[in-house]
């Protein structure tokens, strides 16, 4: 029955291509449309993958500095920017061309073009050559993602202003860089430039970095960034920018309304992302968007138009690649007639800074907002053998528990490798595990994963490496 369904997916990011690939695997007749030559979307071309490639280089450089304390000295790194740029681009090319091959192998009709709706069953497809076609579909999935948000009052024409895309292109290694926005993208890219030798400062409107993440996780990152960055200006905002011959003159206002001017070689604007529904012709369909521009969908990713589904960044937070992919797969299963819905208990979030911060399920901020009863248990990495062997005792593993049942509600980790470790927490939350399940699962020694097991043991006052008086 599935091979009768003509499915068109608009946008080939991690949401769109995951959806298209599963639909083809389920026997549908699939067309995948994207402006780029190959699938990949923001994630592969100008997001997750290139940023992580560069963060790996940053980690390498930082580790050579740390080794000094252990009696090993490296000379200062010589950075060949062109080669570094080429390496990063080769990573992107390898991944995106690989996706192109996977798409062909699945016999997906991949069209490099811009699509817009003519009505609820027809798309206008415009190729770069100017060639225009109409394409009809039984079902469509909109996966057009998000684009960079800007501050109109600060928009000046200057080659010294970078955004996340141009920053990933590594045009130069600036002498100084002001990152506007203390969210994860700004901090990750700031960390890359700092490791390459740039003097980096951050300005953030809120009272802390990474608004939304629990403060006891962020504190370790803040302490480390205070050493590697020049200045972290909280409760502050940029009110004016002027280009001068030798840099950008930036006026920054603090919470008391006082302003100060400072010159920076470059500025990286990283204030967030917004939905990308422009020019899609949604007005020609029954699809509705909310006030923030995100497409309204239900838990089956159905829009208000019975023929059209939407997934990924275009349907809202959290704007993360793995959320987009899972939504894509659920939408396709719904189209295939399966009784499924997108109802995750935990969508992990990872900030790939040094240290990394990762969380899944309930955070303490959310628990307080929603007045959910919880108890938090923490295992400090200072008590972890593995953390000590890598010279990184500055982390913490925290588990949020339902007090009566000891069911795991959330997990937060700060420390190197937190992004890998969090997967155990996701599984625990999704499986409805309680602290005893974690405590009784033998974790390998010496690994950072033991910090999860020992955090569970802390709850019972039985952690081998933490003394806690009897409850
Ligand atoms: C610097 C940076 C780092 C990031 N790091 C991470 C990370 O580490 N982990 C993580 O989970 N997320 C990360 N993200 C976020 C992640 O990239 C997004 O959440 C993810 O790409 C969203 O996937 P998507 O499928 O919704 O759409 P996108 O990846 O945004 O793809 C949408 C695609 O649709 C195409 N398109 C748009 N309109 C049309 C049209 N009319 N016709 C045809 N094609 C169209 C676009 O060309 C694009 O290729 C990062 C983002 C940035 C910017």
Strand order of the largest sheet: 3-2-1-7-18
Average of pLDDT: 96
Shape: globular
The small-molecule ligands in this entry are: flavin-adenine dinucleotide
Low-confidence stretches: none
Which range does the strand content fall in?
A: 15-25%
Percent helix range: 25-40%
Oligomer: single chain
Task: Give the SSE layout.
Layout: E1 6-10, H1 14-25, E2 29-34, H2 41-46, H3 48-66, H4 81-105, E3 109-112, E4 114-119, E5 122-126, E6 132-136, E7 139-142, E8 146-148, E9 161-162, H5 164-168, E10 176-180, H6 184-196, E11 199-203, H7 215-228, E12 231-233, E13 237-244, E14 247-253, E15 259-264, E16 266-269, E17 273-275, E18 308-310, H8 321-335, E19 349-351, E20 357-361, H9 364-369, E21 375-380, H10 385-389, E22 396-401, E23 408-414, H11 418-430, H12 435-440, H13 450-459
Parallel strand pairs: 1-2, 1-7, 2-3, 7-18, 9-16, 10-11, 10-16, 11-12
Antiparallel strand pairs: 4-5, 5-6, 8-17, 13-14, 14-15, 19-20, 20-23, 21-22, 22-23
Helix pairs in contact: 1-8, 3-4, 3-6
The protein binds flavin-adenine dinucleotide.
Give an overview in words.
With 471 residues, the protein is of the alpha/beta class. 32% of the residues lie in helices and 24% in strands. The protein contains 13 helices and 23 strands. It has helices at residues 14-25, 41-46, 48-66, 81-105, 164-168, 184-196, 215-228, 321-335, 364-369, 385-389, 418-430, 435-440, 450-459; strands at 6-10, 29-34, 109-112, 114-119, 122-126, 132-136, 139-142, 146-148, 161-162, 176-180, 199-203, 231-233, 237-244, 247-253, 259-264, 266-269, 273-275, 308-310, 349-351, 357-361, 375-380, 396-401, 408-414. A 5-stranded parallel sheet has the order 3-2-1-7-18, with helices on one face. Strand 10, helix 6 (184-196) and strand 11 (199-203) form a beta-alpha-beta unit. Flavin-adenine dinucleotide (FAD) is lined by residues 10-16, 33-36, 41-43, 47-48, 51, 114-116, 143-146, 164, 185, 276, 280, 312-314, 319-322, 324, 352. Residues 10-16, 33-36, 41-43, 47-48, 51, 114-116, 143-146, 164, 185, 276, 280, 312-314, 319-322, 324, 352 line the site of flavin-adenine dinucleotide (FAD).
């Amino acid at each position: 029955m599935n091979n009768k369904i003509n499915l068109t997916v608009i946008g080939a990011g991690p949401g769109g291509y995951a959806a298209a690939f599963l639909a083809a695997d389920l026997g549908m007749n699939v067309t995948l449309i994207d402006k780029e030559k190959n699938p990949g979307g923001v994630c592969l071309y100008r997001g997750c993958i290139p940023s992580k490639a560069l963060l790996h280089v940053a980690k390498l450089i930082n580790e050579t500095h740390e080794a000094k304390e252990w009696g090993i000295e490296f000379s200062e790194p010589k950075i060949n920017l062109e080669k570094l740029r080429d390496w990063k681009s080769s990573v992107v090319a390898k991944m995106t061309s690989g996706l192109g091959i996977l798409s062909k192998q699945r016999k997906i009709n991949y069209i490099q073009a811009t699509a817009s709706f003519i009505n609820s069953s027809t798309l206008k497809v415009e190729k770069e050559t100017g060639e225009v076609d109409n394409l009809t579909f039984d079902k469509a999935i909109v996966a057009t993602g998000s684009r960079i948000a800007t501050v109109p009052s600060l928009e000046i024409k200057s080659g010294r202003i970078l955004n996340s895309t141009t920053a990933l292109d590594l045009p130069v290694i600036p002498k100084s860089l002001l990152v506007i926005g203390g969210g994860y993208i700004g901090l990750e890219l700031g960390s890359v430039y700092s490791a390459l030798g740039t003097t980096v400062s951050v300005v953030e409107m809120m009272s802390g970095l990474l608004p939304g993440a629990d403060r006891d996780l962020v504190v370790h990152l803040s302490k480390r960034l205070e050493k590697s960055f020049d200045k972290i200006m909280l409760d502050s905002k940029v009110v004016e920018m002027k280009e001068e011959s030798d840099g950008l003159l930036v006026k920054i206002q603090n919470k008391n309304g006082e302003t100060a001017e400072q010159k920076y070689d470059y500025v990286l604007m990283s204030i967030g992302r917004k939905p990308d529904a422009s020019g899609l012709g949604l007005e020609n369909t029954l699809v509705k968007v909310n006030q923030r521009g995100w497409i309204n969908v239900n838990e089956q990713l159905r829009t208000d138009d019975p023929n059209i589904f939407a997934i990924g960044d275009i349907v809202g937070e959290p704007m993360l690649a793995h959320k987009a992919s899972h939504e894509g797969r659920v939408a396709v299963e719904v189209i295939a007639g399966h009784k499924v819905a997108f109802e995750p208990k935990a969508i992990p979030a990872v900030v790939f800074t040094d240290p990394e911060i990762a969380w899944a399920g309930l955070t303490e901020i959310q628990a307080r907002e929603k007045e959910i009863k919880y108890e938090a248990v923490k295992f400090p990495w200072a008590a972890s053998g593995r953390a000590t062997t890598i010279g990184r005792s500055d982390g913490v593993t925290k588990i949020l528990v339902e007090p009566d049942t000891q069911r795991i509600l959330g997990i937060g980790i700060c420390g190197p490798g937190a992004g890998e470790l969090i997967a155990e927490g996701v599984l625990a939350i999704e499986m409805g595990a309680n602290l005893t399940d974690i405590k009784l699962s033998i974790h390998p020694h010496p690994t950072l994963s033991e910090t999860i097991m020992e955090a569970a043991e802390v709850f019972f006052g039985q952690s081998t490496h933490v003394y806690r008086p009897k409850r």
